[in-house]
Backbone:
């Protein structure tokens, strides 16, 4: 049985990891710990998201050195042209130090939200305010993208995609 260490306590991210890893290697054991990404509270580019996810994956090792895989997950926004998009990044490090990286699809953020984020607000608190989420449940469940897409593409979906892409290195090692 493979042991998977996840560098977050976010329920949506953990659920995504469980779904994907169990589809590849059924019966995995999962452990998690909140790990600081060591990047800004609102990563604003794919490179910053990779750095944050890498930091989480590397640092969760100190809590669970016996694990087979170490996962870091980071949500981010990025301006592309005149639009802003929301996405997720996954970095997976194996016990033998191989690294897989992957990204999710991107969901366009409404202009009003993009303007506020570009002015310095973080997406999480902004979404809580705009979507009247006093209990901060959106971040732990469907995510902002789930609200914007009416659950067509949730936060769990976002991180499932990123994890699937990051696993390419491990499920097809002959190509890497």
Residues:
């Amino acid at each position: 049985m493979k042991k998977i260490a996840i560098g977050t306590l976010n329920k949506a991210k953990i659920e995504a990891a469980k779904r994907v890893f169990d589809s590849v290697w059924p019966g995995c054991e999962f452990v998690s710990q909140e790990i600081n990404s060591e990047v800004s509270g609102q990563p604003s580019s794919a490179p910053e998201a990779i750095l944050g996810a890498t930091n989480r994956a590397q640092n969760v090792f100190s809590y669970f050195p016996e694990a087979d895989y170490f996962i870091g997950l980071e949500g981010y926004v990025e301006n592309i042209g005149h639009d802003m998009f929301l996405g997720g990044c996954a970095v997976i490090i194996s016990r033998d130090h191989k690294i897989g990286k992957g990204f999710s699809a991107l969901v366009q953020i409404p202009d009003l939200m993009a303007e506020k984020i570009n002015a310095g607000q973080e997406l999480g608190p902004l979404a809580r305010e705009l979507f009247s989420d006093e209990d901060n449940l959106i971040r732990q469940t469907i995510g902002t993208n789930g609200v914007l897409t009416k659950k067509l593409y949730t936060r769990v979906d976002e991180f499932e995609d990123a994890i699937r892409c990051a696993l390419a290195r491990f499920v097809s090692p002959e190509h890497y």
In short: The beta strands are 3-6, 29-32, 69-80, 83-94, 99-103, 107-109.
